């Protein structure tokens, strides 16, 4: 068998991705106790670059938030966001009138399509204990024919997502098919909605001092394994340290030997869309002219405006996990 490892690379902010994925970022913030307004004690904000705080200080960041950490309203066009919240909570609000609070294993799948505004805030709900946050946000491209589909908002609740328990591993199947177990349906216009594209998003956790075999794919997709937490691992004769990405040959199953700490991975794979990509901030199109058109249209229309009282909108502190859909449907989980 030839070496299944095509490349290894350090994980930055954001992580390096391959077509059809555009972007992946990992947020791990050890937020302190929250105040009544769901933000940290204002004294803890002193010395921070509020509004653009991406430097870890005391184990956490405010990002673009002023009083509550997170990302106040901003637009997207031409792709999808997939937000996996393993720990903590995210409050979503958007220009469609959709809203939600999700976390502790939930996943939000949002198709921006022709254009949407949304905010993603991280309310610190615990006032008597810390508020750790761990999440991935993944940008999955849309092909040219689907760049202008209607925006779509979908929740994949933790208790509904398939979780496979093997002898030494637990695999959360967010997208794709893992050894015959299919994930829940993604958004309807997604590149992932067509089985032949073999899009997979798996969160894999493997016990220390064990071995895990990653199955091969059926077709020649791009496949990247992100080793984001643990001790060293070994793939054949190659040692890989944590905080490294591994581009793999998808035609081979891969045996991974885990060292002295439990290993945590995110796998992204899919058939490349193989079209020109023009990116500018939150817009992803095929040409620079389309990017300019997106910017002009956003200035004129704000992609439907903002129906919420604040750009950094958060929901009532007492609310549990919920989703309010654009058609008025309300789903409450706890």
Automatic annotation (TrEMBL):
Entry superkingdom: Bacteria
Stretches assigned to the Pirin N-terminal domain: 62-140
Family matches, as Pfam families: Pirin, Pirin_C
Coiled coil: none
Gene3D superfamilies membership: Jelly Rolls
Domain annotation Pirin C-terminal: ranges: 202-304
PANTHER family assigned to the protein according to its UniProt record, in alphabetical order: PIRIN (PTHR13903:SF8), PIRIN-RELATED (PTHR13903)
Protein family per UniProt: Belongs to the pirin family.
This protein's name: Pirin
């Amino acid at each position: 068998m030839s070496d299944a490892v095509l490349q290894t690379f350090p994980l930055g902010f954001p992580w390096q991705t391959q077509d059809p994925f555009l972007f992946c970022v990992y947020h791990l913030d050890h937020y302190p106790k929250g105040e009544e307004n769901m933000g940290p004690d204002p004294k803890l904000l002193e010395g921070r670059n509020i509004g653009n705080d991406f430097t870890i200080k005391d184990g956490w960041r405010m990002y673009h938030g002023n009083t509550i950490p997170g990302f106040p309203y901003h637009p997207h066009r031409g792709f999808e966001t997939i937000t996996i919240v393993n720990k903590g909570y995210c409050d979503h609000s958007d220009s469609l009138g959709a809203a939600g609070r999700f976390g502790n294993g939930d996943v939000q799948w949002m198709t921006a399509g022709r254009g949407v505004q949304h905010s993603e805030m991280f309310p610190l709900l615990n006032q008597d204990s810390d508020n750790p946050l761990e999440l991935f946000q993944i940008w999955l491209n849309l092909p040219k024919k689907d760049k202008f589909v209607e925006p779509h908002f979908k929740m994949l609740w933790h208790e509904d997502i398939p979780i496979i328990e093997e002898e030494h591993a637990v695999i959360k199947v967010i997208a794709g098919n893992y050894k015959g177990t299919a994930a829940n349906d993604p958004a309807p216009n997604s590149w992932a909605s067509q089985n032949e594209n073999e899009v997979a998003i798996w969160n894999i956790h493997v016990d220390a001092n064990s071995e895990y075999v990653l199955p091969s794919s059926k077709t020649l997709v791009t496949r990247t394994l992100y080793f984001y937490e643990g001790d060293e691992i070994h793939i054949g004769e190659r040692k890989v340290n944590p905080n490294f990405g591994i581009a793999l040959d998808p035609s081979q199953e891969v045996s991974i030997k885990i060292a002295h700490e439990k290993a945590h991975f995110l796998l992204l794979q899919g058939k490349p869309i193989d079209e020109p990509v023009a990116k500018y901030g939150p817009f992803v199109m095929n040409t620079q002219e389309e990017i300019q058109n997106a910017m002009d249209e956003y200035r004129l229309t704000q992609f439907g405006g903002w129906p919420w009282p604040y750009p950094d909108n958060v929901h009532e502190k007492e609310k549990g996990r919920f989703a309010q859909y654009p058609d008025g449907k309300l789903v409450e989980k706890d």
